[in-house]
Amino acid sequence: MDPMIKPVYLRNRDVQNDKRKFVTDYAIAMAVGNVIDDVKCVQRDRDLWRIYVGTRASRNVLYTNGFDLESRHIDVFDTNPFSAGTEKPDERIVRVLVKGIPLSVDDDCIKNMLVKMGAKLTSDIKYEKIRNPTTRKMTEILNGNRFVYMEPLAEGSFLPRTSYCAGLKCTIYHDGQPKNERKKICTNCWANDHLKFQCEYEKCCRICKEVGHNPGSDKCTHYDPNQKDVIAFCGNEDVLSNFYPSEMKIFGQTFKTPEHAFQHTKAMRCGDLHRADQIMKAETALDAKRIGNQIMMSDQWFETRDDVMRNILDAKVAQCKQFCEALLKSNKNTTFVEAAYDDYWGSGLNKLGTLHTSSGHWPGKNELGRIYTEIARSLRNSQATTRSRRGTLK
Ligand SMILES: [Zn+2]
Ligand SMILES: [Zn+2]
C-alpha cells in the first residue's frame, strides 16, 4: 500500500440510517468493494470513518462516484470533515442529477442552466455509468444521466424538477427537493383514491354525490338559487377576475394581467426562471396560469402566496378604477367568490354551480373571495370617512 495515498472520509451519521443498527466495517468494505477493487483498510474512529485504497486512480473513482450502501447513495469526503481549519464541519456537497439530455449536448450547456438557477457548482459535469444489477459494480458504459456537485442551497430553496437545456426538456433531482403532491381527486365520481381516467363509477354531483345531475341543478340537495349578496366572478371579461386584461405595475415590473403577476412571482420564488420567462411572454392570463401550474411549489411559497395575492390586488385597486368601482358595489353582507374549478382560490364550481349552491357547501376554500371581502370593506370604510369629512367641512 502506498503510504502517500490519503484516505477518503465518511461521517458515521451519514452512513448509519438507523440508530439501533450499527454499520459494520464489513458492510462498508463490501459496499466500497462494489465500486473499486483495492480497498485496503476501513477504520472507524468515533464518528469518523477512514477508507484507505491501493491507488490514486481508485481514490479518484471513489471520491467521484461515492458508493451505495443498502440502496442509499453515500458520498465520501476528500478531507477530514471534522478537522479544524478552513473546512467547516457541516460543509456538505449536494449531488445534482440531470436526466433526459442527449449525450450530444455540451456539458457547458448543462452547467449554464444550473448556474442560472442559482446553483454554485463545486465539480465538473460527470457521467453516470451502468451498474451490474446484482453486484452493483460499475461498467464502463454510460446510462446517459449526468451529475454534478453543488454547494447546499439556502434553507428552503431548491432547483426546479423540470427545465430546458438546449431547447430540450430535462429532469433535475437533488436531495432537499420537495415532492410535488397533487391531490388525487377523481373529477368524475369525486372519490380521492383514483383519477378520472381510472374511474369505474358513474358520474356524480360533487356536492351531494348523487348520480344524474351537476352542482347547481334543482335536483341537488344543496340547491339554493336565491342566495343574497353573492357576487361571483370569473373569466377575462369580468373586471373582478385576475384574468381581466388590465396592465399593472408591481414588484418593479409591468404585467399584462394580475394573473401574470401572480404566476410570475410564483415562478421566481420557486426558482423556476425558465417558466418565469415563459409567463412574461404568455399572451393571455389563461396561458400564464397553465404555465404556472407546472411549477413545483416550495413550502415557502405556500406560506407566502396569500400575501403575494393581497399585494397584487392592492396594486390593482390603485391602478384599475373599474375594479375599485366593482368592489364598492358591495355591502357588509356581500360574499365575493371566484367561480372557478380551483379548490384553494375559488369555489371549486362553475358560475351556475356557485350561484345555485348554498355557500356553505362550495367545495373550494374561496381564498380569493375572502381577500376581496377584506379589500372591499376597507374601501367602503375609507369612502365613508372621506364623505363624513366632506360633511364636516360644509
Ligand atoms: Zn372516480
Ligand atoms: Zn347534487
Question: Could you explain how this protein is built, in words?
Answer:
A five-stranded antiparallel sheet has the order 7-8-6-10-9, covered by helices on one side. By secondary structure, it is α+β, with helices and mostly antiparallel strands. It contains eleven helices and 14 strands. It folds into three domains: 8-74, no CATH class; 94-173, Alpha-Beta Plaits; 218-389, Tetracycline Repressor, domain 2 (Orthogonal Bundle). Helix 5 (258-269) packs antiparallel against helix 6 and helix 6 packs antiparallel against helix 7. The protein has helices at 12-15, 25-33, 56-65, 107-116, 258-269, 273-281, 285-292, 299-319, 321-327, 351-355, 367-393, and strands spanning 8-11, 39-45, 48-53, 67-69, 72-74, 94-99, 126-131, 138-150, 162-165, 168-173, 230-233, 248-250, 253-255, 335-338. Helix content is 31%, strand content 18%. Bound molecules: zinc ion (ZN) (2 copies). One zinc ion is lined by residues 186, 188-189, 191, 194, 199, 201.
Helix content: 25-40%
Q: Radius of gyration over alpha carbons?
A: 29 Å
* Beta-strand residue fraction: 15-25%
Number of strands: 14
The SS-based structural class is alpha+beta
Task: Compute the average pLDDT.
Answer: 88
H-E order: EHHEEHEEEHEEEEEEEHHHHHEHH
Cross-sheet strand order for the largest sheet:
7-8-6-10-9
Q: For the report, how would you describe the main beta sheet?
A: 5 strands, antiparallel
CATH class of the largest domain: Mainly Alpha
Hetero groups? zinc ion
InterPro entries: NADAR, YbiA-like_sf
Pfam families: NADAR
Protein name: NADAR domain-containing protein
Organism: Pinctada imbricata (Atlantic pearl-oyster)
